Amino acid sequence: MSLLPFLKRKDATVLGASPEISALLQDYSIEVMPRTAEKIDNFKDLLPAGTRVYIAHIDGTPIEDMVATAKRLAADDYKVMPHFPARIIQDKAMLADWIARYQGEADVDQALLLAGGVAEPKGDFHSSMQLLETGLFGDFKRLHVAGHPEGNRDIDKDGSDKNVMEALHWKQRFSETTDAKMALATQFAFEAKPIIAWADALRDAGITIPVHIGIAGPAKLQTLIKFAIACGVGPSLKVLQKRAMDVTKLLLPYEPTDVLTELALHKAANPEFNITNVHFFPLGGIKTNANWAIDNGGSATVPANKTKEIL
User: Using the 8-state DSSP alphabet, how is residue 18 labeled?
Assistant: First the structure.
């Protein structure tokens, strides 16, 4: 009896995948940059139609490259969500121009608004709240903002969460006045228990915006440690450091199985848990991450090349 009809069912779960992880990985998202997207010949071989694909806007990337990437992904039926980093946008006129380009060429109606990774603003904006206050995103259907499960030293230099929480309360109030669906897209972390505690604390503080938890995709351990330090990942970095001390694991690629298993089991036992989606940072490569997601039940259908491997 052929397994192919079962593997191609819309609600198929890949053989061997944890049902809890598979459930958590439904409607996952992934992040690309123009230069990394150029290396992918055909996204349809890797990502199911309708996948939300964030396009990271790194300082120095021409807007033309960003829009071209958005146009390509939109043509392949992906939900395109470009970054709008406040600190690299000079003024309201530049912001309006970017939005017009995205909407005119790629029909973009989703965006991630964030402060951005540069230390000093290049113009009038320094926060995602200022971008929201312009009113230029009024016809967007979905707006995501940043979340920080392990805090953010750039925002709270004393190590507290005072300023971060004030900003989240502001964004909560905004979410109650906009027709756009909102979510918190977070920095990646490697340990589930602190993530769970942070998410529960948000709910207790009246922050009901759904959380799309950032997860680092499979990668070499050395690569992850480098990115984690550069991105300011907090205490959960010790998970990688402990792994690096184990000679038997040092040369093996890291996979997010442990952290996602714990989060998925918690979600299954607590359906009201406010982490609703997974957002992947493909630090080991888009293909590697996408194939891992497929193998763990994150794809609605299995591309032909993966079906052959499973059979």
Answer: -
Domains of the chain by range and CATH? 18-310 (3.20.20.220)
Cα gap 102→140, rounded to integer Å: 11
The CA-based angle 163-143-107, given to 5 degrees, is: 150
Place of tokens 């055909």: 42
Which of 81, 94, 184 lies closest to 136, judged by CA?
Answer: 94
pLDDT (mean) for 66-79: 98
Q: What is the mean pLDDT of residues 17-31?
A: 92
**What pLDDT digit, counting tens, does each position of 136-165 carry?**
999 999 999 999 887 655 665 555 577 889
pLDDT of residue 159: 58
Contacts of residue 11, Cβ cutoff 8 Å, sequence gap at least 6: 300
Mapped onto helix, strand or coil, the DSSP state of residue 260 is helix
Mean pLDDT across the stretch 15-26? 84
Q: Which residues pair with 239 in a beta bridge?
A: none
Closest CA to 52 of 14, 80, 18, 82: 80
| φ/ψ (deg, to 5) at 102 | -60, -45
Following DSSP, what letter does each residue of 215-250 receive, concatenated?
Answer: EE-SB-HHHHHHHHHHTT--TTHHHHHHHHT-HHHH
Identity of residue 128: S
Alpha-carbon span 81 to 29, nearest angstrom:
10
Ordered alpha helix ranges (H), the chain: 4-7, 19-24, 34-37, 63-75, 92-106, 128-133, 162-175, 192-204, 221-230, 237-244, 247-250, 257-269, 286-295, 304-310
Q: How far apart are CA 43 and CA 45, in angstroms?
A: 5
Asked if 170 and 206 touch (Cβ cutoff 8 Å), the reply is no
The tokens describing 66, both together, are 């960003």
Tokens standing for residue 123: 């113009």
